[in-house]
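From the methods appendix. Each design record in this collection lists the tokenized structure first, followed by the designed amino acid sequence. Records were kept in a plain field format so they could be parsed without special tools. The example shown here is representative of the layout used throughout.

RECORD:
FOLD TOKENS (209 positions):
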């Protein structure tokens, strides 16, 4: 582990957060620009329901659940989100009230896509703390934002970054897929994205030896 990552972990343990995301800008984006298109997502939509349910998880966290799409479809799921009242708990990553190593599965489908390298590291450190050894973290990340996102800082996810954070966080990358911006009969905001694709991948927390 690098000295930089050790500093970040120490900051998290002391309740400190660096380079905090502009929550007002994020609120505006989700309330006025973003639309739910999860039914169009080949790798991070309804297909995950069957895959996760096969593992018979005792507890699932949807980190940044937005409209809480998976609620009632995946048993034992609790979703939190800082913007949408449909969440079970209205809060952000750092205020979520979960105990260490409580979750078998965590979903972070687009909610760890903001800020710079340090912001991403801090969010992953927090989310990982809830995951049991051997647990699954499903993630979706984009290499950029929308044409009209009011200047939000998007982290540019790519294969290099996915594997870099796997090494830093001591995760295994089980699989990674490209997901392209499809549109349905009612359109949607996907054509407004600056890039034609996003990444969907599965991290596994390594077992304690």
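DESIGN:
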């Amino acid at each position: 582990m690098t000295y930089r990552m050790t500093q970040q972990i120490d900051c998290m343990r002391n309740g400190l957060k660096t380079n905090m995301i502009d929550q007002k800008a994020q609120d505006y984006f989700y309330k006025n620009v973003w639309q739910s298109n999860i039914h169009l997502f080949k790798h991070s939509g309804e297909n995950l329901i069957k895959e996760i349910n096969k593992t018979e998880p005792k507890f699932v966290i949807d980190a940044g659940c937005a409209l809480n799409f998976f609620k009632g479809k995946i048993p034992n799921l609790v979703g939190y989100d800082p913007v949408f009242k449909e969440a079970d708990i209205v809060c952000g990553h750092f205020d979520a009230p979960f105990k260490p190593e409580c979750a078998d599965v965590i979903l972070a489908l687009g909610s760890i896509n903001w800020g710079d390298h340090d912001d991403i590291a801090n969010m992953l450190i927090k989310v990982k703390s809830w995951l049991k050894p051997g647990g699954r973290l499903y993630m979706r990340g984009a290499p950029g934002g929308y044409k009209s996102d009011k200047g939000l800082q998007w982290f540019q996810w790519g294969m290099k970054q996915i594997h870099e954070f796997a090494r830093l966080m001591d995760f295994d990358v089980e699989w990674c897929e490209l997901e392209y911006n499809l549109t349905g009969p009612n359109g949607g905001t996907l054509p407004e994205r600056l890039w034609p694709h996003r990444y969907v991948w599965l991290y596994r927390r390594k077992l304690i030896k």
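APPENDIX NOTE: Residues 1-19 have pLDDT under 50 and may be disordered.
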